[in-house]
Amino acid sequence: MPQLGLLPKRAWAALFSQLLRPPPSACTQAVRGHSQVAESVLTSQLKPHQETPNFIIKTPKGTRDFSPQQMVVREKILDVVVSCFKRHGAQGLDTPAFELKEMLTENYGENSGLIYDLKDQGGELLSLRYDLTVPFARYLAMNKLKKMKRYHVGKVWRRESPAIVQGRYREFCQCDFDIAGQFDPMIPDAECLKIICEILSGLQLGNFLIKVNDRRIIDGVFAVCGVPESKFRVICSSIDKLDKMPWTDVRHEMVTKKGLAPEVADRIGDYVQCHGGVSLVEQLFQDPRLSQNKQALEGLRDLKLLFEYLTLFGITDKISFDLSLARGLDYYTGVIYEAVLLQTPAQAEEEPLNVGSVAAGGRYDELVAMFDPKGHKVPCVGLSIGVERIFYIVEQRMKALGEKIRATETQVFVATPQKNFLQERLKLIAELWDAGIKAEMPYKNNPKLLSQLHYCENTGIPLVVIIGEQELKEGVVKIRSVASRGEVAVKREDLVTEIQKRLSES
């Protein structure tokens, strides 16, 4: 037997080819495997829509879409709100939809559990903003601003129960107005209450009442009634439920769930069930227990001054000093307020819609200092308009009255009764657009005139400009009123002027 090292080159090549070649069964399996992959890819390409999707097409719980008609209503509401903010000298501001988690979690008390946390992204723990107030305070501290009057319209997120009842959602829009800076007492606060009155009156939502209280008075009541200071905030959040629950249920929660002594709860009940006007303020000045508390006296003095300014503004008939109002958020330090509708603008015989508060706010003098490295204070007071609840009410009213809503603002439709007039229509509509006139035209080369006129009637477009062979020959265009169906011919060069005249008269 020859030694391996002395084998001829051809023998070595044959040996290696035998060793490297896979067995016949392996080749067959590989080919079969590649064939199956190719077949599955081909099948997925040929039949992408034949399989039933294994998911339900829906919006996430607590969110909603808004149709074009609904957007028209929302934009009108927002226009009333923002116009009022601007009338009072506010500047616009926007902040990110999410903030550092640590910026949010310490400011909402028991409601902190409703904050939406996001996964760690790039080494930062983030949360969706819960309101627009804390981001504003962060903005002031970060930019070292000591004075600002701002408005902000934006979405916020709260992980509440997904049951959608009368305007409550997990994702919703807020409209905020805030005044930051050191000013004489109660002047900015009075302006905030005046703004709420202006907006709710302008939206014609029906009768409303603004409840007013002061966190210093609440804390004073807790102190003289014997509530341990460590329980002030948790008891405050219970009192805040008095607009939704009877006193007996709130008392039960304070005693059984939050460990308050029954006699202390009863003493609190003597106060928090009181409401009235400036006369109640005077009455509490004489209260033997409350008049001994420094915090409460400061709050009562400010409320008395506030009522003086509200009298000058002529809105005291819309204001009620209500000791049950607590506003559970931790950052409030002084005057707090909340606007509620007494009835809806629906028919008198209909059941009133209970939608809760439609605006709220208050003073928060310590919040900016929490974000400032040196703890510098910037006193602030502000308000928030509940757009979703207002939208719900307006929408219900429009449904009850059978009001139709135009989804577009188109003023003129450019039409033709004949074929091959696309170029002339394009010239006409470009001229209208350049003049600032809101105009549409069909995207077909040869549309039917009747379908064009039906479109205008269905969408509420008031005017139609018609160009055809006869009009082109005579150098004119026809203007048709959709409502009356009357037509008039005008010179081609006078079209824009005539359209503008008609629109200004309508």
Automatic annotation (TrEMBL):
It holds the Pfam family HGTP_anticodon. The keyword Cell inner membrane does not apply. GO terms for molecular function: ATP binding; histidine-tRNA ligase activity; identical protein binding; RNA binding. InterPro entries: aa-tRNA-synth_II (IPR006195), aa-tRNA-synth_II/BPL/LPL (IPR045864), Anticodon-bd (IPR004154), Anticodon-bd_dom_sf (IPR036621), His-tRNA-ligase (IPR015807), HisRS-like_core (IPR041715), HisRS/HisZ (IPR004516), HisRS_anticodon (IPR033656). The keyword Aminoacyl-tRNA synthetase applies. Residues 62-417 form the Aminoacyl-transfer RNA synthetases class-II family profile domain. GO terms for cellular component: cytosol; mitochondrion. Keywords: Aminoacyl-tRNA synthetase, ATP-binding, Ligase, Nucleotide-binding, Protein biosynthesis. Its EC number is 6.1.1.21. GO terms for biological process: histidyl-tRNA aminoacylation. It catalyses: tRNA(His) + L-histidine + ATP = L-histidyl-tRNA(His) + AMP + diphosphate + H(+). L-histidine binds at D131, L132, T133, R158, Q174, D178, R327, Y331, Y332. CDD domains: HisRS-like_core, HisRS_anticodon. Belongs to the class-II aminoacyl-tRNA synthetase family. PANTHER family: HISTIDINE--TRNA LIGASE, MITOCHONDRIAL, HISTIDYL-TRNA SYNTHETASE. NCBIfam families: hisS. This is histidine--tRNA ligase. It comes from Oryctolagus cuniculus (Rabbit). The lineage of its organism: Eukaryota, Metazoa, Chordata, Craniata, Vertebrata.
